[in-house]
Amino acid sequence: MASLEQEIAQAQRTRDTQRTDTERRAAFDRALEDRRFAEAEVEIEGLQQLGVSKVSLDLMRSRLDEVRGAMRREDEVARHERQFRDAVERRDWAAARDIARSLSERMPDSQVGGQLMTELGRREDAYRKQMSVDQGVAQVESLIAQRNPADAELALRILLKLEPLNSNRKRLEKQIEALWRG
């Protein structure tokens, strides 16, 4: 009879240990998913005390290290992106280029550095085009002020090649027409 009671007690302890093992593994997964690393480590330690195999524990530690590393990389990418956006906002193209290049060098497996360089190219081109358009408008206005309709008309044609739908078009055309009429 005592032997049966011992077997039942042993079976209950085994069942409780298995439940605890399963619960701890699930808690580890949840902690890892929620990036609560201290809690994940506590679950690993608890599993170690339950006598879980070294291979299982090493795999769990490896997963923990992997998620930590991914989070550090994400944080670094986010930091570089913020710095990049700030530099672009200031139109500090050289700083933005350095930041994108730095990210590409530090994280060659990330596509973000290349994406930032592409975005920088588009933004610089748009800025240069806008500067050219603004200079073109100023040039046309200057020629109108100098009462030079032929050159003003030529400058307007060049401006409209850069930006056919320029918001100043009608106003400038009317001013040039007025100069021709005299």
Concise description?
The chain is 86% helix and 0% strand. It has helices at 2-33, 37-49, 54-89, 93-106, 112-145, 149-162, 169-181.
What features would you describe in this structure?
The protein is mostly helical and 182 residues long. Helix content is 86%, strand content 0%. It has helices at 2-33, 37-49, 54-89, 93-106, 112-145, 149-162, 169-181. Helix 2 (37-49) runs antiparallel to helix 3 (54-89), helix 3 (54-89) packs antiparallel against helix 4 (93-106) and helix 6 runs antiparallel to helix 7. The protein starts with a helix and ends with a helix. The relative contact order is 0.05. The model has no long low-confidence stretch (mean pLDDT 91).
User: What is the global morphology?
Assistant: rod-shaped
Strand content is: under 5%
Pick out the low-confidence regions.
none
Structural class: mainly alpha
Regarding quaternary structure, how should these chains be classified?
A: single chain
The end-to-end span amounts to: 124 Å
